[in-house]
Design brief:
By secondary structure, this protein is an alpha+beta fold. Helices cover 43% and strands 19% of the residues. The strands form 2 sheets. It has a 6-stranded mixed sheet with strand order 1-2-3-4-5-6, sandwiched between helices. 23% of the residues are buried.
């Protein structure tokens, strides 16, 4: 079974090939490489990518801007599949933190065992104006704060769902109605598209331009009594 120390020789050979003098276990750093005219390179070795490795890398940034994380390349079909599913996110994290990333394939011949996937570089995130506009539009459109942060496997009450609930609650009280009537009574500008697209299967068209609640809508509306109550209080 491979150990972290098995990664040292391939990483050392890689750095020596780039003209560095390499030494191991220098002041808690797994690998330190130095050459004239260049910042020292620090490499932390781990068989797998982990939070512990990331924290070690962050600590090494105190002494050098050229910090690499070196991990063992996956050597089984299952490990390769898992790596492919995580590789993009791992590279993104390393890029954001300013790390380089080296993959070490211990089953390859010497000289072909290392692959530099990423070099260290300063990271300046690019803001996505479109996503920012969408974020704040959703924030402003929601009535109150109907969700609990951090929950999983729970339906999120979005502004769209709130608008659909307004339409459904009106139909529950008034019965079938024209789209124009629903729109005016609920003050939901997108009422027509909500009814027509029917994402939640709550509505059914009973005649041209006329909608009512579906059996599913009647049943599921009961699950949102607390949400509807809060929305009513917010509207007052």
């Amino acid at each position: 079974m491979a150990s972290e120390s098995d990664l040292y020789a391939p990483v050392k050979a890689l750095l020596e090939g780039l003209g560095y003098e390499v030494k191991a276990e220098v002041k808690d750093c797994d690998v330190v490489a130095s050459k004239a005219g260049a910042a020292p390179v620090v490499v932390e070795l781990k068989l797998i990518f982990s939070l512990e490795l990331v924290l070690q890398g962050i600590d090494r940034l105190k002494v050098s801007d050229s910090v690499y994380l070196a991990i063992s390349a996956p050597d089984t079909p299952t490990k390769r599949k898992n790596w492919r599913s995580r590789q993009r996110d791992i590279l993104k994290l390393c890029r954001m933190l300013g790390f380089g990333l080296i993959l070490v394939a211990l089953d390859r011949k010497p000289g072909r065992q290392t692959e530099v996937l990423l070099d260290p570089a300063p990271y300046t995130p690019r803001k996505n104006k479109r996503q920012l506009v969408q974020l704040m539009a959703e924030f402003s459109a929601r009535a109150g704060d109907p969700n609990t942060g951090g929950v999983t496997q729970t339906k999120i009450i979005t502004s769209y769902r709130q608008d659909a609930l307004r339409c459904a609650a009106f139909l529950q009280t008034q019965g079938e109605a024209k789209v124009s009537e629903i729109k005016a009574a609920t003050d939901v500008p997108r009422a027509a598209s909500i009814l027509q697209n029917n994402h939640y299967s709550w509505f059914q068209r009973t005649a041209r331009g006329i909608y009512g609640l579906s059996p599913r809508g009647i049943e599921e509306l009961k699950l949102y009594d607390d949400v509807l109550l809060t929305m009513a209080e917010q509207a007052e």
